[in-house]
Amino acid sequence: MISHFRKPCVIGNWKMQGSREMISNLVSGLSANKNYPEVDIALCPPTLYIERVQAALEDYALQDHFALGAQNVYCESGGAFTGETSPEMLVDMGCRYVIIGHSERRQLFFEDDTLIARKSRAAYHAGLIPILCIGETAAERAAGKTFEIVCRQLQAILEKLPLVALATSIIAYEPVWAIGTGLTATPEQAEAVHASLRDWLGKQDPEIAKKVCILYGGSVKAENADGLFSMPNIDGALVGGASIDAGQFLKICQSAFKCKQI
Ligand code: PGA
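That is the input. Now the predicted structure with 2-phosphoglycolic acid docked in place:
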C-alpha cells in the first residue's frame, strides 16, 4: 500500500494530436492496463475529442482507471467568447482536470500571468482540478533565475486562487527547455525545484505544502520515469509525447505505482 499522503498522478497531454482512428487504437492499447488503483491517471485529449475518448474508455470498461481532462479553458462561464470553452462545459462533459498555463499557451498564444490566474480561479470554482504549469526557459536557467521565475509564476496564480485551493490542485513544474526536446531535467535538478517550491509554500502554510501534488513534465519517458519518481518531492508526471504511445504511457504509470510504494 502507498502510505504517502500525496497520491501519485500521471497526466497525459496529447497536445494537438489525435483522430478518431488514433483514439480507437490508443484506448485499445491502454486496455492492457494492469490497474494501478494507487495512481491517479488522466488523459487530456484535444477538447473536440473528449467525448469520443470517454466513449472509447467506456467501451473497454476503463472509465474508472482513466479520468479525463482538457488542455485549456476560458475564465468565464458562458457568453460571447467565440471559440472558447468554459469550465462548466468541461465539467458537463465529464472532465475532472484542466491544464492551465502550459508554456505553449504562454509562448504561442501570449497568455499572461493575469489570464492564467483568472483561468485557474474559474476552473477551481467550477469544480475542476487545475494543473498549474510553471517553468523556466533555458536562458533563465542559465542566468540562475529558475526559482525566481517559478515562484513568480505561482505567486501570480495565487493572486486570484486562494492558497487553500492548492491542497486539491496540481502544480506541474515543466522546464521549457525540456518540453518536447528530449532533454529531461535530471531527477536531481527536478527534485531541487520541487523541494524549493514545497519549502516556499510551507512558509505560507505547512499543511498545504505537504498536500499539494507537484508533477514534473518535460520529455518524461518509460526509460527516465523511475529516476524521477524516486525523488521524494516528485509526485508524478505531466507527459506529452509519450502519452500518445499506449505502451510508453502504461509503463510510466506503472513506474509511478512502483516508485511511490513505501
Ligand atoms: P513532452 O511534453 O513530454 O513531450 O516533453 C510535456 C508537456 O508539454 O506537458
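The first strand starts at residue 9 and ends at 13.
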